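Annotators were shown the component list below and the corresponding predicted structure, then asked to write short factual statements about the assembly.
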Amino acid sequence: MNFATIFGSIFEVTLVGILLGAGLPALFALGIRFAHSPSSNGTNALGKIASTICFAIIAVAIIAGILWVTKATIYQYSGFDIFGTEG
Amino acid sequence: MGNSNSILGIYRQKIQNRHLVSTLFRAYFPIVTELIILLIVIVTALAFDFTNGFHDTGNAMATSIATGALKPKVAVALSASLNLVGAFLSVEVATTVAKGVVDLDQFDLSNAWDSHQLLLVVFAGLIGAIVWNLLTWLLGIPSSSSHALFGGLIGAAIASLGFGGVVWEGVLSKMIIPALAAPVVAGLVAAIGTFAVYSITKAVGDNEKNRYFRWGQIGSASLVSLAHGTNDAQKTMGVIFLSLVATGHLGTDADIPFWVKATCALAIAIGTYLGGWRVIRTLGKGLVEIDSPQGMAAETSSAAIILTSSHFGMALSTTHVATGSIMGTGIGRKGAKVRWSVAGRMAMAWVITLPASAIVGVFCWWVAHGIGLISSDLLGVLVAFAILVILSGYIYARSRRVPVDPSNVNADWNEESNSVEPATPSAPAASEITEAPAAPAAQAVQDLNNENEVTK
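Structure shown to annotators:
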């Protein structure tokens, strides 16, 4: 393993880390912000929809996370390769 | 005359009997000895698995405990259950332990002497790892259990095979570089996350905000626990599997026996449930004072990195990532401070994890091997095991002087000593009888203090 590959790996891990590890908390914060929009009453319905969308994306991410952890087990017992990483 | 003859006959008979017994003994002794040695190695492996769970509870749960999102006991119970489930999810347990770091393939398993040597290397490596895990727990330092295990194995492999038994390039690319990268990467991700979270929710009231973030914290911490169970229990399963292969009880391509999976899952779960309160305290209170939004950002950063890093060819240690994330939340929040002296002590511990556990590994290998040469293999293993038990007992006894448990895990950090042990009241508790009722009272005072801080 040479240094170029190592730093390539570190770079990729960092990039994905920022996308998911910082992006999801930001999305969650956005959902909270929309749900508790301090502006006038009129925007509340819109805020509720926006916050629901944010939380729904996070729910999908959590399910994806659990499937990611269990992907090898699922592949072993059902042969179903969810992320195309096993075969 | 006849009398003496019959006495002689009895003696002769006795000598014959003794001869028969000793022949039987010689025939079966190696088998029995080997079985006992194997059992001791398996017990030691499970003990390592236990310390692994025990040491790493804080990685997932320290932030939730510190912010009060979960009560301490509930947090460790949740983490233990998820570790148990995670361990049972393990498949494809590698028959090779520490592949690419230690070259255990040099042992020819069809040869009885080599098999025994391999078993000794694994055994001595495990002792090194357990001793290091316990010592760092006593000091309240989160350090990587896999580094400790690999360190112990490296030491034992050097003692047994010489320096050629270690794949030094693997040590650099699989251990040293990831250990340097993990805190930086995790710290960066968590700092960005924390900064974003605080900027976005600036307009939302603290109470409402915290209600959401507590749930976010619990969710992200649960994912970390599940991933921990899957990754870490697998390591011990690999060690036990290798020992069973070395002693000829299993073929190299056999499936992992259910009892191995079950005992490893239980050992890591029980360890997690007992909770390494000292490590939890350092991570949750010592490094950074944490609030729910920070806790959520830290655990999400940890979960994202732990889950994806191995996919990108750089397996980062759970402990290094979790610690880096928690530091990052201190950097990303305006006004929060990281206690750099605590972080520095931690970094120091990480640097010496490998050599320290390696030295214990070398020492235990020489004890077990040396005594094995002059006496019996079994005695060597028993003496090394006794050393482990004595050291563990000493460390445990030392930890009881100032215990850290669910009642004082969130007590104010001792800024002067920076020690994980909470400052004791000026008059030390005289006996256990006075100590017991004092604990809830101390907690109440603690809660009051916290409230005061909030209202300030």
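Statements collected:
1. Residues 425-456 of chain B have pLDDT under 50 and may be disordered.
2. Residues 123 and 293 of chain B are 43 Å apart (CA to CA).
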